[in-house]
Amino acid sequence: MSFRADFARRLRAREPLAGTFVKSRDPAVVEILGHAGYDFAVLDAEHVAFGRADIAAMAVASRAARLPLVVRVPEAGGPWIATALDAGAAGVMVPQVGDTDTAARLVRAVRHGAGGLGFSPSVPGADYGARGVAGHLAQHPLETVLICQIEDPEAVARAEAIAAVDGVDGLLVGPVDLAVAAGLSDPQNPSVAQMSETTARAAAAQGKAAGLFIGDPASAAHWRARGVTLFVHGSDQALMAQAARAGLAAMRKGWSAG
After folding, report:
1. pLDDT for residue 257
2. Count of the separate structural domains present in the chain
3. Structural domain range at position 86
4. When you count CB atoms within 10 A of the terminal residue's CB, does the N or C end of the chain come out lower?
5. What are the residue numbers of the active site?
6. What's 146's domain CATH number?
7. Geometric angle at alpha carbon 114, from 111 and 120, rounded to 5°
8. For position 258, what pLDDT does the model report?
């Protein structure tokens, strides 16, 4: 079983999985995160100026480290989904999925066939032709996930219907986006937590993965008890900043004491 297929199997089985956003363009970051033991990483092409060539380079590192790479695409259409999957990403995360029609269009966009994803057997995701046409057609659905982001109160109200769309593998809540869409500035607001719980329950009710962005890893136990299985903790940049601040503070404390 390929590492991408294993990730898809685990996600669809609703096993707890830990990942982080990647916002740096150096492929070494992906390798480092893989060696650190993460279950997956999310390449943030929505909020970072990743080009299509950057996605391809980061996917090479993903394969080298056997770290499943999910690409958060900047838009639901255009070449982005095809680029990510042809490059060998383990799936896509799509922002602002607010209804079942959008979810159904995305399911077609990540699957080969009439009106869907264009097909080439020679791309990296198809092992550069080694699989052959029939082999890649058979393998692709087993190793490609679709995660829909729920980012406003209206989408929360439709979350269970979105999760019920065949081919949607999970829902993910970004508390900051949800707070802003609700007219709030604090993602810790109790109403945001309630909407996050509602979305997690909606995904679980349809047997789909419930995902959540968390800033504090200590909160994972709280959310795991509420059905969340897909955790995206911070980002590579945030992890580096936290480690730098902690190390600097410890060093300065040490020389001050001396």
Report:
1. 73
2. 1
3. 3-257
4. C
5. 47
6. 3.20.20.60
7. 60
8. 60
